[in-house]
Amino acid sequence: MKRDVSRGELDLAAVRGILHDPPREFSVMPFWFWNDELQHAEILRQIADFQEHGVHGFVIHPRIGLPEDLVWMSEAYLDYCETAVREAQRRGMYVILYDEGMYPSGSSAGQVVAADSRYQARCLAAVELEPGEEPQLGEDEVLVAVLPRQNAATRRLPSSVGDCRWVAIIERPAKSYIRGLHYLDDGDEELHLAADILNPEAVDCFLGLVYERYWQRLGQYFGSTILGIFTDEPHQLARCQEPVPVVPGMRKTLENVNRVLGCDFTPHLLSLWYEDEPDSDMHRRDYDYAVAVLHNEIYYTRLQAFCQKHGLALTGHPAGPGDLGALKYFEIPGQDVVLRWVLPDDPSALAGPQSTQAKGTSSVMLHSGRRRNLNEFCGGFGSETTWEEMNWVAKWLLVRGVNLLVPHAFYYSVRDQRVNERPPQLGPHAPWWPTYSEHAHFCRRLCWLNTDSGHVCRVAVLGAVNMLPWRAAKLLFEQQIDFNYLDEDTLLQEADVAGDGLRVGNQHYDVLVIERNFPLRCRNQQGWIPAAVGDTLPDLAALAAAGRVVIHDPEATTADLVDSVVVPLRRWTAGDTPIQTAEPGIRLRTVTKVGLRWTMVFNEVGRPQHVQLSEEKAAASWLALYDPWTDQWDECPPLKLDLPPFGLVVWVTV
Question: How far is 466 from 360, CA to CA, in rounded Å?
């Protein structure tokens, strides 16, 4: 097969050197668990060891196991941080700071509530009343409403006895906590009262205790050595230990929820506890949506404003895997593949809410004009985790567009019980540490490729602001049709919709996929196109008339889905890659960078998979095959590629 290599030769020569040793900003940046008695000399030694193994950055993560006399955000703690940051600067490495001791974020290791007891996290609780009983209120408790039950004979709460005709809704402090940094004398973990991150004053207190303190001590490194600050899965109820069911609340809960929803939610409050209330599912989703909006307004906007003012990237991740609404406030939107939520040769790789998270972060990055998106990975996978499994998870993320990988975690110490705190230990204490640089170089090459590149993608999949459809995504993955997630708020507020497709940021989509009966907040009588879209974006009708709105029915057979979804999508996507056919285990991602087109080809399953190139396309464009693990190039690749289990290569074309 004849190829005109002259068209790609200069570009290829230019990037070979870059891919051999990409810029250090694309390094993996592991959580570095500071979990024992710290010593300045040992911090320096471990940083040198990281760099010798291809790791050029880290997230300083204070972790349980620190000595009791080392107080979170004390001068002594910040002295250790400054030692690490100063050494990173000297070595040309990068640092991300962590904003909590330990997590979830927002409480400054209990210091926020200690500053003012009114800043304690709050909740709404339901109390079933006996006939004639009046609700009893404790300290700092507020009666929100007393409501009649639709089905008085049905009781749903643990305290239920007899008939229940009235229920009191009470707003009060919640028994919610965060994990602490110290082991107690009996070996249990220290816990701290969680702060009310729906209270602007409490969030400002948190910023003063943590973010401002970092600025005072380490501000000279902000925006250079220190890339950003990591906020970790902040949740309104943190780690709730209530003995009865509660939902997130705040001061003046109803007043704030009503403002977001534009209606009085009082008649629907019982839906938060009783599934037999009318339209309970819909009302629960409305309440969750309102709380998420308030969380974004009160917590994330404040953190974002601080970081923007001081030249930092706000990064980390929200509590839920599909929280696209929250991710828009992150300069580096992130998520976390932990606790064996996503595994090789397991349905979890394509099924369930957790399977959507990597695509969610990369989609927000593209739509909001960000450069990077982040994922923790392998935290809590267990001591049985293997080298092969760790590499598979990294590839699973990379082929979905992630470009900043945070291994979870490198341990400062594995002394005593520390080795069992969310294993595996992926770094210096792991058996694969002598060859870790192979993994680090591989990840750095593909993170470079996923950054500042154009994503060749013609398909958007519609989701909610806090939940994403995985069934439609599974079909597209298995058919090698790449896509990005688009949440309905972004569609309504930011997308430019016309008869030839829709544009969001720099992405233009020829076709919109909507999963039938997916729980969007606004739906028409057919249950799949948001009603507000027809009012706000009348061109969506023209989009549908042109065959550019495709409905995925999760209950349809595979054959029907091929006819109703895959065939229409091929009309738009057939020319995007040189791939003609591929087996279902193959995942593709195509980007443009430095004048070349790069197609990642990943065998996601544990058996060989075959890929057939189009001879016509191969003859019309220059082709090379790049192996990012070995850094080897093949300028005369075959038309048929047999990928071994979990193998990944990159086709390069012009």
Answer: 10
Residue of 476, 532, 466 whose CA lies nearest to 509? 476
pLDDT of residue 4: 42
8-state DSSP, 195: B
Distance (Å, whole) CA 580 – CA 565: 18
> For residues 121 and 194, is the Cβ–Cβ distance under 8 A?
yes
Is a pLDDT exceeding 90 seen at residue 396?
yes
For the sheet with 94-98, list strands across it. 313-317, 226-232, 94-98, 57-62, 31-34, 410-411
Q: How confident is the model at residue 163 (pLDDT cuts 50, 70, 90)?
A: low
* CA–CA distances in Å: residue 163 to residues 128, 130, 277: 9, 8, 16
Residue 160's pLDDT band (cuts 50, 70, 90): very low
User: For the residues 491-516, what does the mean pLDDT come to?
Assistant: 91
Q: Which CATH number does the domain 579-653 belong to among 2.60.40.1180, 3.30.70.560, 3.40.50.1100, 3.40.50.10140?
A: 2.60.40.1180
Task: Please tell me the number of Cα atoms within 13 Å of 445 on its side-chain side.
Answer: 26
Backbone conformation region of residue 517, classed left if phi is above 0, alpha if psi is from -120 to 50, else beta: left
Determine the Cα–Cα distance for residues 332 and 312; give it in Å rounded to an integer: 10
Could you tell me the residue ranges of all domains in the chain? 24-98+320-449, 456-573, 579-653
Strands (E), 55-119: 57-62, 94-98
Kindly give the pairing relationship between strand 496-498 and strand 454-455.
Answer: unpaired
**Cβ-based neighbours of 509, under 8 Å, separated by 6 or more:** 457, 458, 459, 460, 484, 486, 501, 502, 503
Choosing among 3.40.50, 3.30.310, 2.80.10, 3.30.450, the CATH entry for 456-573 is 3.40.50
Instruction: Read off the pLDDT of each residue in 68-85 and give the average, rounded to a whole number.
Output: 98
**Residues contacting 634, CB < 8 A, separation 6+:** 624, 625, 626, 627
Distance CA 334, CA 365 (A): 9
pTM beyond 0.70: the answer is yes
436-453 b/e with 16+ CB inside 10 Å = b? bebbbbbbbbbbbbbbeb
- pLDDT tens by residue, 447-467: 999 999 999 999 999 999 899
